[in-house]
Amino acid sequence: MKELPSSIGQLNAFKMFFLFRCSNLKELSSSMGQLNALQWLVLARCSNLKELPSFFGQLNAFKKLNLSWCLNLKKLPSFIGKLNALKKFYLSWCSHLKKILAFIGQLNAFKKLYLSWCSNLKKLSSLIGQLNAFEVLCLSGCLNMKKLPSFIGLLNAL
Fold it and tell me: Bridge partners of 18?
């Protein structure tokens, strides 16, 4: 599949959407910005997906976002910080990802971050230390991360 039909935005009650192994998918339809009930999106192994469109910042019901194995994803947009309901974020094997920016500290409901084998990841934002509900941080195989961030001791639920 190379693209999604624009009619996808008409699925108002859509809660889960799985686009697993859509390696030809390069971008998402802007009509997905109308999926206000969407809680769980899996884009795992969409290896040609390079970025997330800005409409993602409007999807306030998001609880789980899986971008694992999106090999060409180079950075995360700051509007992810607007996803107030986001609890679980899967980014394992996103080998071009170099850093997790400060927006992550704005996610009050955030609990789990999976970064296994993000081999170019060098640092995490210190604002993760402000997340009171944070429980899981998976960094196995992050070969370029030389040391654990200093905020790690501030995470009481970890």
Answer: 42
pLDDT tens for each residue of 20-65: 999 999 888 888 989 999 999 999 999 999 888 888 888 889 899 9
CA–CA separation, 69 vs 44, rounded Å?
6
The CATH number for 6-154, chosen from 3.40.50.300, 3.30.1120.10, 2.60.210.10, 3.80.10.10, is 3.80.10.10
Q: Assign 126 to helix, strand or coil.
A: helix
The SS3 of residue 94 is: coil
3-state class (DSSP) for residue 153 = helix
Q: How many C-beta atoms surround the C-beta of residue 33 within 10 A?
A: 17
Distance CA 147, CA 27 (A): 34
Query: pTM here?
Result: 0.91
Structure-block tokens of residue 140: 């196995």
